[in-house]
Amino acid sequence: MSALKRLGGALNTLDRLAPSLGARAAFFAFCLPPPAFTRPDADRRFIARMQPILAEAEAISIPAADGRIQTYRWKTAKAERAGTVLLVHGWTGQALVMALFVKPLRDLGYDVVAIDLPAHGNSSGVQLNM
Measuring CA to CA, which residue among 130, 125, 129 is closest to residue 68? Predict the structure, then answer.
């Protein structure tokens, strides 16, 4: 039985025995992104291929209430800037999964900023509650 099914069963039992506690436990579990080692091999290979693009960025660590948020900035080479685009990954993602957008946006004259949300990528934390 998978860990996810066991967790679901435990939360279901807890919900029947103590609904308020079960709801809090389910919310806490929902806010925990799965660890990187649980990613499929294809995801890990993609992440490895995107590392050189991330390495080209200026890495900026921003202090936050519960740690730090890691951001990355790529400046356009164009003399006339079109503006700045913020790239935000989805659940369980990280900034580098957005790396394929960087070159086309820079070629159009945009500076690009990508962010690792809390508990994702290189940002600190273990839980994210949007």
Answer: 125
CA 60, 61, 62 angle in degrees (round to 5)?
Answer: 115
Portion of the chain with pLDDT greater than 70, in percent = 93
Structure tokens at 108: 């159009």
Integer angstrom CA distances of residue 101 from 47, 50, 74, 97: 14, 11, 11, 9
DSSP state of 76: -
Structure tokens at 51: 């590392």
Q: How far apart are CA 62 and CA 43, in angstroms?
A: 27
Sign for the pseudo-dihedral over CA of 38, 55, 75, 106: negative
Query: Cβ(113)–Cβ(71) under 8 Å?
Result: yes
What value does the mean pLDDT take over residues 42-47? Answer: 86
Can you say how many angstroms the Cα of residue 18 is from the centroid of all Cα atoms in its chain? 32
The DSSP secondary structure of 6-25, one letter per residue, reads HHHHHHHHHHHH-HHHHHHH
- Find how far residue 115's CA is from the centre of its chain: 8
Q: What is the DSSP letter of 33?
A: P
